[in-house]
Amino acid sequence: MDVNGDLVHGAVLTAVIDGSTERVGLMRALSEAHRIQRLELPVHTMLPVVLRQLLLPIMLDALKAPRSRQEWATRFRHGAFSDEELGRLEHYLSPQAYGDRFRLFDAERPFAQVPGLTALNGETKSAAQLVPSVASGNNVPLFSALSEADELLLEPGDALLWLLHAHCWDTASIKTGAAGDPQAAGGKTTGNPTGPLGQLGIVVPTGRTLYETLLLNTPIVADRLAAEDRPQWAWDERPTALASTSPATPAWSQRPAHGLLDLLTFQARRIRLFTCETEQGLRVNRVIVAAGDRLTRTPLEDPHTVWQHTAKPKKDQPRQRPRRHLSGRAAWQGLSTLLALNLPEQGDGPYTSLLLRQIGDLQADTVLSAQHPLGAETSGLEYGTQSAVVENVIGDDLPLPVQALLAQDPWLREALLECVDQADKAARALDGLNNDLRRAAGGDPLPRDKGSRPSAQFLQSLDSTMRRLLVGLRTVDADDVELLERAQLAWEQSVHNKAVRDADLLLAAAPPRAVVGRTVRNGDKEFVYRSGKAIGSFRSKLADLLPRATDESRAVAARGKGSAA
């Protein structure tokens, strides 16, 4: 990368091409998107950043969004950008159009930054401010390799990624007060929200190549994008009435997004990178991170988030609000949210993302093959005290059968949700057994928020089995009832075997006094807890929960008795 930080042709992204990794610029990432299997990124939360802040808005602004399913299908089936489309992309990223605005260290217009941004106290901070996994201020990760006193040197390509990551995911901690910001007080800005993605449950559909992933993340916009809807690098092209504050100045405002391009490239912080020369070349070592624009409300047109529908919202609250992913759960455990294709008929409930609903519609119209190897990558951050620190990164990816996204044909979706529900209930039954054994031994059940629960290890042990099931069901169709039944039987047998194994381990670990047990009085009622009673109750619950596995076990036992006779 040159001294200006050319993003169009410099080594910006790490791409996997034909099984090997190469560093590519923005132009090559787009021109060879059909050859790139995936992008190698440092954390799960980075994929939506690269798509939303870079690749998608470039593609949408240069080529425009498809206006119909047929137009989307034409692009998707082509498998690569056409020569005409490549010409438009090359022009878009040329100096004659916007190429000179994609320079990370440009003196007059540095990409996604405020030129000349200065802190009220005249200080700069370590580049670690941009990286949540490195200690900085109140954010002190448990296993950080660096302390706040250590200097973090970022290569230009990595600095770009973490710069954009801050715009999307930054914490709500106190920000440096910027000179020229009328809302800064006492050298700082308080009351900052997290970055826009911090309150969302992000789901990114993925395909076999980067080109497919780009198309799968492209919403169909029937009315075209509005003229005032511009990406952050073309902010000056907006009507004067909408340009009262600019991402190129320290001043900021609380405002809605003016359209899809504005939403994708929303500048939630005012940032400036500082560089130094090292033996290895130019590096980013210092930074200013100040308050930026605050998004009034996540619009329903946001393509990537899942939603929570509220039947009776509070005053001035919308019926649909973004639904965040739960920490400590695999993506398949949230399939009830990912596959919620319709609004709840009654009461509250989840509603899946716009893009997953669109994929279901495309498959219903036979635009997208039912056997297409679709993936879904989920990401999120769990924030700590007042959202000022990052406590956990949430990220997972899983194969997803396209047919499960058919709103009008729920047979596969219902089968998958039944499998997830069985795993969840078996896990709760294991926790119940553990608590009953603790009571039988004279102890107390584990508090809700403390201790290691057997359910966590049990669900983890089912992870690979569920992923094999999802891959296998990609090719099943509605007429193959027998195959679906066999798949569900195999799943139930796996759940049964693993649950019984874990239950036997819990029983073996129980002290001898649990055999005798004890009686606990609660009001005028008495409850008897013994290990034998506890394991018997657990097995009964498991038999009711897994009917196919239970019937098959009984049939095998009956055949064994018949053979013996």
Describe how the helices and strands are arranged.
Layout: E1 13-17, E2 20-24, H1 26-31, E3 36-40, H2 46-63, H3 69-78, H4 83-92, E4 125-126, H5 156-169, E5 175-176, E6 188-189, E7 202-206, H6 210-216, E8 254-255, H7 260-264, E9 269-278, E10 281-291, E11 294-295, E12 307-309, E13 320-322, H8 335-338, E14 349-351, H9 354-364, E15 375-383, E16 390-399, H10 411-440, H11 454-461, H12 463-472, H13 481-509, H14 513-516, E17 518-522, E18 525-529, H15 531-545, H16 547-564
Parallel strand pairs: 8-11
Antiparallel strand pairs: 1-2, 1-3, 4-10, 5-6, 7-15, 9-10, 12-13, 12-14, 15-16, 17-18
Helix pairs in contact: 2-4, 2-5, 10-11, 10-13, 10-15, 13-15, 13-16
Annotation keywords:
three-stranded antiparallel beta sheet, 18 strands, alpha+beta
Descriptive overview:
Helix content is 35%, strand content 16%. It has a three-stranded antiparallel β-sheet. A three-stranded antiparallel β-sheet has the order 4-10-9, covered by helices on one side. The chain has a three-stranded antiparallel β-sheet with strand order 7-15-16. α10 (411-440) packs antiparallel against α11 (454-461) and α10 (411-440) packs antiparallel against α15 (531-545). It starts with 12 loop residues before the first strand and ends with a helix. The mean pLDDT is 92. The chain is of the alpha+beta class and 565 residues long. The chain has 16 helices and 18 strands.
